[in-house]
Amino acid sequence: MDFQKNRDEVFQAVAHATREAHRPHNSVKIIAVTKYVDSSIAKELIKTGIDHIGENRVDKFLEKYEVLADENLTWHLIGSLQRRKVKDIINYLDYFHALDSIKLATEIQKRANKTIKCFLQVNISREESKHGFMVEEIRQAIKAIRNYDKIELVGLMTMAPFDADKKQLDEIFSKAHALQKELSQLGIANMPFTELSMGMSGDYKEAILHGSTFVRIGTAFFK
Length: 223
Ligand SMILES: *Cc1c(COP(=O)(O)O)cnc(C)c1O
Description:
Family: Belongs to the pyridoxal phosphate-binding protein YggS/PROSC family.
Organism: Streptococcus varani
Shape: globular
Radius of gyration: 17 Å
Structural class: alpha/beta
Function: Pyridoxal 5'-phosphate (PLP)-binding protein, which is involved in PLP homeostasis.
Mean pLDDT: 97
Low-confidence stretches: none
CATH class: Alpha Beta
CATH topology: TIM Barrel
Distance between the termini: 7 Å
GO molecular function, one term: pyridoxal phosphate binding
Order of helices and strands: HEHEHEHEHEHEHEHE
Number of helices: 8
Number of domains: 1
Largest sheet: 8 strands, parallel
Strand order of the largest sheet: 7-6-5-4-3-2-1-8
Pfam families: Ala_racemase_N (PF01168)
Bound molecules: pyridoxal-5'-phosphate
């Protein structure tokens, strides 16, 4: 694998999509999702110029963190988190992308020693298999979480169906963007809602067109 080449291709494609969307240069941050490889291979990729690293599982996150904690990275947990594992990981995170229940928020509030930047995961596509709040549950979540000083709701995270076509992607990503803008207007102190975590290797261009500020990319780095 030529990591430098893959890295440069991904960064150039993201920059291109950002220009096409008439958005400011560097307004989209790229999270390298290293879940497919072990720590030593992840380290090789990181040396090519990576600032943000993401893992979807607690055990794999901790494995990487042990080896790469000194690398000046911003650490993202992008996958769902079981309540009983919150205490093992929460204080190593910079960003948590999959806040999907009020009970989980309550456990984070209890265990965190610092404020954790969190994304509310929202199930825009309404797929049965997907985690996340339904749109109509979000108001209630906000009401519960607004009193939690260890949680900062920086934005929304969503995932499109694996086999979504262009039309479905546009629909899902534009709905998420509209909802994020609406929530940002609420002006709640610990809920800026300025960010949108959406877009993976197969759909980040569409996500950037619809306002994504964090793309989570794995496969494209490891081909
Ligand atoms: C694996 C994963 C990604 C990256 O997916 P690729 O298609 O490999 O780019 C993004 N988000 C989440 C939540 C993931 O689990």
